[in-house]
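User: Second chain of the day. Same drill as before.
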Amino acid sequence: MSMEDPFFVVKGEVQKAVNTAQGLHQRWTELLQDPSAATKEEVDWTTNELRNSLRSIEWDLEDLDETINILILSIVEANPRKFNLDSLELSKRKAFITSTRQTVKTLLGDGNSQGPQWQPGPDKYSRLDRELQTANSQFIEEQHTQQQMIAEQQDEQLELVSGSIGVLKNMSQRIGQELDEQAVMLDDFSHEMENTQSRLDNVMKKLAKVSHMTSGERQWCAIGILLAILFVILILFYAL
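Assistant: Same format as last time:
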């Protein structure tokens, strides 16, 4: 078997592409199962890479299948020894194509379909597109739900803060009223203190006048008071 056989070159590329597609499909599934751990940009990028990888594999498989059919119909059956290919090798190559197509069908979500051949057509990726679109819609919906929950939590926190501000405002108003009342009371007390001080000043002035009298004057005042009392007693006695 020639080392320059292009089948094995393309086969190696297809196998690498299948491994890449399987890795992308696994990552894509993980992103959809845990939307909170991914961004919409990552989901879109993974989705597009998966779709492009599967389409590239399909094109390579079509080329391989067409090449094998040409070999079978035109060359190998006429002179198989010339190309060092027999029916067993051709069967292996056909089996590789069939197996790889089945893997692609599984990644496309069509693994339960019956029939050995995957019929190409304009809608061969429609199911994958529908699943990707549905999954992306679910991802966007879950992201929207999470954002809505966050917004609701923020609204609740704002309501709590506004309630606390209202309570503080009422308390400040009450404190202001109490301070105003205390200011009025202090003003009244100040007026009373001024009146009391004025009275005390008058009393002190009178006491000062009395204290400045001479002893003689005080004696004559006392005698006058006693005579007045005696005069009142005599009047009362004769009146009886």
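The chain is about 80% helix and 0% strand.

User: Great, on to the next one.
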